[in-house]
Amino acid sequence: MHNISSREKLTYTGSLLGQNMIYSFVTMYIMFFFTDLLRIPPESVTVIMVAASLWDAVNDVLMGMIADRTRTRIGKFRPYLLTGPVFIALATIFCFVSFGGSLGGTIAVAAVCYVLWDITYTVYDVPIWAISSVSSPNPDEKNGMVTLGKIGGTIGTVIISVGSVSLLNAFGGERSAAAYTAAAAVVAVAGAALMILSGFVLKERIEPPPKDIPFSRNIHTILDNGPLIALLVSLLIVDMVNNLRQVSQMYFAVYVWGDSGYVTYIGVSLVLGMITGMAVSPMLIRRFDKKKIFIAACVAGAVSSFLPFPLNAGPVIGLILLGVSFAFTGMTTISSTAMLMDAIDYSEYRLGFRGEGIVFSMNTFLNKLSSTFSKGLLGFAMTVTHYEDNMEPTAAVITGFGAMVYVVPALCFLFAILPLLLYRLKPAQIEEIQRQLTRRRQAKKENP
């Protein structure tokens, strides 16, 4: 039985496209803006990112709890999809404004703006992913929605990777603070316009329990779900592959390859790779165990990520191998999200309720924690290589940024395999769980 309309699929894809335009712009440029335009020391920027991550431990889980307890006539998640984009747009612009003043004041304002952006982003991020799990009772349709969302998100990332340098140049170039403010405004307004459509179009077809689930019980969605815990730890690590490259690519293009214009070509390799990997993943998922697909993609991704470093590859070979590794990242993205859906079904099977909000809040928290670790590693590398803004590149700086784009992502691919060895949901077990859940839901409809 098919429930999700083409209009919903298109809207969901577009909403994640818009959201990831904003996310990618912030991720790619926030550290560069803070260090090279606001002249905040790398150590202080790292502290800001780590502090924001610590707040995320509360912020994301709190949002998941709130979403799970929300009951309105339009659903659990749609109210946040209608309101969140406006605040995200405003916070994004504020992050890229140079307010002037002393260094201490600049650091304080930058910290407040970044934390506000993080809070507003969470208000939308948790519900937009959680709504996919209640969009249809059909597992294939839910996985299809996730695939479309990931494809939309990747296209949004690519739009920024490919077009952001030209956008900055149109407003004054990469060394102009005003250019970042104007570019952030364009990206924020365009992204928010796409995002807000989700609140009007998407539907929730799996009914929540009539009574609120207490937090003390809801948290067992995660605590009593061994496969989910293993998967979340693995996602924390594998998410660092793209996050490391996003936060490092501007520095890498400028100081290793010698031209910020190469950011555009890295974006092209991203789109060709990620879209290819994600496009073939649903076909592979129908034929093979999702866990095995994930592990195989991690091994291949590690090899293709590492090779350019010992080869001392220039832009041509480097971009080709980056594109290959991005393809395997796309495969891990789709297979792991499908596994996340299975883990939510497993929770409903065992506990009698789904807890999508808290599960996806943990997933988004770990993604942002991964991004924070990536920024922290970049800050550490910049400190130990004695990086200074607008410097002549030294051998240590070139090696450091090269390692951040090639070597550390390769290690992340490999380390992501280890926790997944504890993910023990088998395909036959998943199919039986889904049959049981279908029977339970039908029985509730017939005997409310």
Automatic annotation (TrEMBL):
Transmembrane segments: 21-40, 46-67, 79-101, 151-171, 177-202, 222-242, 262-281, 293-311, 317-344, 396-423
GO cellular component: plasma membrane
Organism: Candidatus Eisenbergiella stercorigallinarum
Protein name: Glycoside-pentoside-hexuronide (GPH):cation symporter
InterPro entries per UniProt: MFS_2, MFS_trans_sf, Na/Gal_symport
Protein keywords: Membrane, Transmembrane, Transmembrane helix
GO MF terms held by the record: symporter activity
Coiled coil: none
Entry keyword Membrane: yes
GO biological process: carbohydrate transport; sodium ion transport
